[in-house]
Every structure is written in structure tokens, then in C-alpha cells.
Amino acid sequence: MLVSVKYQAINPNMKNQAMRYLLLVIAFFAYSSLYSQQNCLKNSKLYFFEKTVVPMNFTDRLGNHPEFPFLQKINGVTTVQAFLDAINNPDNQKKYNREFNAFDLLLRNSGFVNGYRDLNESNVENMFVKKGIVGNLGFYDKQKDMISYITVRLNPAGEDKAGVAAWKLTTSKGCYLYILHTCGNAFYPNPKANNAKSGGTGKIVPVPVPISGSCKIATVETEVKPLQIKPDTINKKVHILINLYEAELVAARHKKGMYDTVVTLIHHVDTIGDFRSPEGKAMKIYANPQSNKIVVCKDTTLKFLSVLTIDSSQANSTDPLKFVYADTVYKQNKPKLQCKNKIEISLDGGMSFNAVPRFNSPTQHSQTDGAHPAAELSIAQIFSQWFQAGISASYISLSYQDDFPYPGATPGTYSKVTLAKPIIPVQLFGKFTIGKQVGWQSTIALSVGYTFPMNGKIENNGTTLTTTPGLKSAPTAGIRLGINYFFTCRFGIGIQAAGQYFSNQGTLMKYSLFALPITGGLRFRF
Questions:
Q1: Whole-structure pTM value
Q2: Which residues have C-beta within 8 Å of that of residue 519, sequence separation ≥ 6?
Q3: How far is it, in rounded angstroms, from Cα 204 to Cα 69?
Q4: What CA–CA distance (Å, rounded) separates 404 from 417?
Q5: How far apart are CA 451 and CA 477, in angstroms?
Q6: Residues sharing a CB contact under 8 Å with residue 210, sequence separation 6 or more, in sequence order
Q7: Which are the contacts of 12, defined by CB distance < 8 A and separation ≥ 6?
Q8: pLDDT tens track for 506-523
Q9: In this structure, are residues 483 and 444 in contact, taking their beta carbons and an 8 Å threshold?
Q10: What's the rounded mean pLDDT across residues 142-168?
Q11: Helix (H), strand (E) at residue 296
């Protein structure tokens, strides 16, 4: 039967003064290294070594139970920058949420105040851990959802001859731990075990123990199931945030749209309370299972020391609950569009008919000359939605036919009498509007002004006679009825019918004529 024991071999021949000085210097540096590490923050099981636990000779290949799989070499983590990128990758943090939270907690318990955020290129080194070194090696048991550490002598298969490749993470105080390349597991060497002297090698070696007839070999196995601890209640905070909004359609101030949506916060509640919750911070207490063969003799007392470890890297249930409620009420009534225009310009074109003078003679006759082109341009000041006033100028032709025997006319034929082509009435008008500013509307306008006739003449059979109507300028008045449709506050179309009275007098006779121009066109507002 072989058991592992620690022993220290002392060479009795080392008595010279120089050797003693050398030993004192070595002891001094060893003590300095141990003292600096003792000042480090070590709140993880990674740094706890039980004196009675014999390290297991670990010769398997690494990677069967990866503790932090997002840091494994097979996932492309081969450089310091790749190591930092893998840690700060949001996809890794989400995919390996359990393992990443445990990694962040391990860093905080190792002296990295801000956890993984404290890691940078200056405190991450690519190194080799010497084979045969004794220390704690991490692992993750997914079936039990347990992250823990075992004490091993590190001799894994398949590693480089130079040693086991690892990332060395060092705090600002010089405290460190290792993350092995192949498995992504944490490792920390046992300073006491690796500094112990045994035959000058610093290793623990097996020593044969004779078995007498009164002793027997017994196999002892221990198994401890993790104990789930959860407090009955905990005082939790709750953050309640309520926002109520009101949305309203208002008139747009740009060209392409007619309405804008204005959202107003009408009620806001932001309060923090607390309540008693049955969900506390979950913890697991467990011990590593052991299997040992020991020599049992008469009157033998067995004493088993199981190291209990608390895994508190579960989700923090003391975080406050946050409830956010938001709702928006939309007003159903569509607001009236308020156009702010001050000027309206109208440009119309169409046809005009005029009345025919009647002679008080059974032998003289007159008749219509048909329709003629007509146009109008008007500019108005907009005083309100329903009233505007302005000035207009029109283009109208006045003509008729009669069989009066003018000098040079063929008897018994009709002559074309053109009183004015054109006659231009320039008028002041007031217009009343009924309807929407944008959309359909009807109008009625009253006008008064003065006319300017031009190009009066009499034609018979294509010949212009020497006699002329001699029409004079005179006052005029009119009334217009119209229908418009505005697409926006600035642009629309319309059609109108007008009745225009002319009081002009001529050299041949006195006239009292009416014209009926029917026109349509464009409307512009500014």
C-alpha cells in the first residue's frame, strides 16, 4: 500500500558557512513572494488549500469540464487581444451567462475591483505553467450546475513540452491567477506545496509503508450532495414608473404635410417602494467527493475533514424590481387647419358672351356674334378666413352683328360691329368665402371699377368700314360666383361665372350691355 506523505530531506554534510548564507537568501525571497501574495484579495475557493487533502495527479487531457468555455483555445482565443475581445463580446456574455457571471465574480474576488472591465493588454500575459506544479484547478459540472476547484498535480496530456499554456492575469497590486489555454479553467499554484523541500526537488513523492498481519487495507468513499440554501424572505425594492401621454394633430408648418403630431406628457409617477419577497439570494454549499485507500489497524481512529464551499455566483435576487407603464391617448377630433396666408393671386381663362343691343325699328335687326376668349388676373389681401379684398383686371371682347346700312356696306347683309377688342375693366372687389381653408369652398364677389375699350371697328363681308362705334371709357360693375378647391394652404384651382355691366357710350348710339365671362384657373396664396 502506498500513501502520499510530505517529508524534508536534510543533508547533514551542508555545514559550511557559504551554503547557510545561500539558504538564507533563498528563504528570504521565498518569504517575500509568499508575503506579497498573502496581502492579495483571495475570496474564492481557488485560493484555499486544505492541509489534509492530497493533490490528485492530473494526467487527463484538459477541456473535458471547461469552466469558462468562451476563453478556450478552440474558440480562437490565441492572442492577448483575442482574449480581451472574447471577454467583452456581448454574444459570449449572453450565450455563457452562467459561466461569464462566475468569471466576473472570480475576478472581483481576486482583487480586480471592476471585474472583467479592469482587464487590458498591460495585465494579461501569455505564459507557460511548469508541469508537475501543485495547485487548485477549476471545473464546471453542468449536470449539477456546480463551479468548483480541486487540488491537483498538473501533468495533463497533450500539452507543450515547455509546460501548460496559460494566460496570467495580474492585478495592480501584483496578485495573479492563471486561465489555462486548452480548457479555459482557472488555476492557482499552492505556494507552500511548491516551495516545500523534498530531497531538494520541492515535490511530494510516494513512500512505501509496510503492512503487518494485524492491519488491513480499507477503501473509504465520501459523497456529499450540494445543499441549496434560500432565505425565507428578503426585503426587495420595487421601482414604479408611470408615464401618460396625450397626442394631438396640429397644423403642419412645412410644405409636404398638412398635419404634425404633438405628444405631451400629462401625468408622471416615479416612486420607489419595498416589499417582502420569498425569493432570497440562492446559495449552494457542497464538498468535494473523496475516494481513498487507507491502512486500518487495531484501535485505528479515522478522522475525515470535508471542505465545505459556498457557491454564491447565482443571480442576485436583491436587485430592485422595475415596473414601467406608458400609455398614449390620441385625441379623436381632427383640428382645423389654420392657414396663415395674407395674399391670394388668381389667374383665370375662358370664354365670354355679351348681350346684343335691340333696335326700335322693324326694318333694322341685330344678332349675337358668339363667344370670345376672356381672361382675368386678380390680387387680393386676405383679411380673414371668410373675407378678402383686392383689385382685378379682365380681358373681354364686346361684339354683335346688325344689318344697319353703314356707308360702304352691302345692302341686305349683316355687318360685324366690334365695340372693343378688348375692353379692359379694372375693378376693386370684395370677396366672401364659405368653406374650408384647405378643401372645397364657394365664393361670391362684388366689384366696381372703370373700363378701357380698344380697337373698335365695323366689318362687312371682310371689309373694314370707315364708320366706327366710337366707344368711350365708362364705369362698370359686376358680380362673380365661384367654386374653389385648395390642395394646401398655398395652392388650389377654381371656376367662376361673372355678370359684368358696361355703361359705355358710343358715337353711333348709347349702349347698356352685359357680359357673361365663364373662366377657370389657378389660385396661389402667400
A1: 0.41
A2: 348, 349, 350, 351, 374, 375, 376, 495, 496, 498
A3: 32
A4: 10
A5: 10
A6: none
A7: none
A8: 888 888 899 999 999 999
A9: no
A10: 92
A11: strand 290-296
